[in-house]
Design brief:
Elements: E1 3-7, H1 11-23, E2 27-31, H2 34-44, E3 48-52, H3 60-68, E4 78-82, H4 87-96, E5 100-103, H5 108-119
Parallel strand pairs: 1-2, 1-3, 3-4, 4-5
Amino acid sequence: MARILLVEDNEMNRDMLSRRLIRNGHEVTMAVDGEEAVTRAHSDLPDLVLMDIGLPGIDGCEATRRIRATERIAQLPIIALTAHAMTGDRDRALDAGCDDFDTKPVDIQRLLGKIDALLLPKR
């Protein structure tokens, strides 16, 4: 079981994804914007972050850069989530420091595979 920080501003997406992650044995905490994501990454010390890119305030790319800039949490695995499936969006998220990228609507089995792939080396 992993502790996952789910960063998502859309309530329906947050609810659906958190329930599916919990059903698959994960513990989930949530943030609704980039500032809260950085704060919760510091305070909760999750095993992995699912980062929506299109957030209000500071976006997911900037939140990722801020997490990467802090030594204590710089190595957190981060998977970018976005409804934008353009190559440039993927590149922008990876350039900001995300470890992987997935699109919405989320295919839960594909996402669980990506989560496992990032967490297996830590276990």
